[in-house]
Write a structure and sequence with these properties.
The protein is mainly α. It has helices at residues 2-17, 33-56, 68-93, 98-131, 135-138, 142-170; strands at residues 21-23, 30-32.
Amino acid sequence: MASRKSSSKLASKSSIKSSPTVELTPVGKQVPRNVLVIMTIVAVLYQGVILNYVMNLEDKLCNCIRDWRHDFIKYFSAAMIVWATIILLLALTGFKNEMLKKLLKALSIALSLCNLINIWCLYTYVGDLNSTDCSCAVDKQKIANDFLYVWRYVLVAGVIFGLVSIILSAFH
């Protein structure tokens, strides 16, 4: 009996010391506030790298491929920076409006679908820039280009892993 009391005291003390949690998404996942801030900073930096990369390809002297994928990646990255900032601000202020939560959930689903398109665009666009040896991307932005060239494989592997997980969970 004494061990139960001491373990319950420990549990209550540890829950008091833990950082406050916030809803990461309107779905209701609880995430510690400091983790949410770090995740948002990483997401904004990542999208910023992509946005800077494609914006640098818009120089008048750059004759690289510039099709709808370029524009999609650019606008999607800008939208994701805004989205991450809005979600962070709403989560930190503890929004409780149910209508707003439903709207954000619908937007999250739409952005998830758009993200699949964005992954395909990023994969093929960066590959095409490298296969055509676009100097604006390959030479002038070597670090960002090398990162995105490798990262595109990680993104595709993540999508494949996610699809395999969904398929396998359907059989259980």
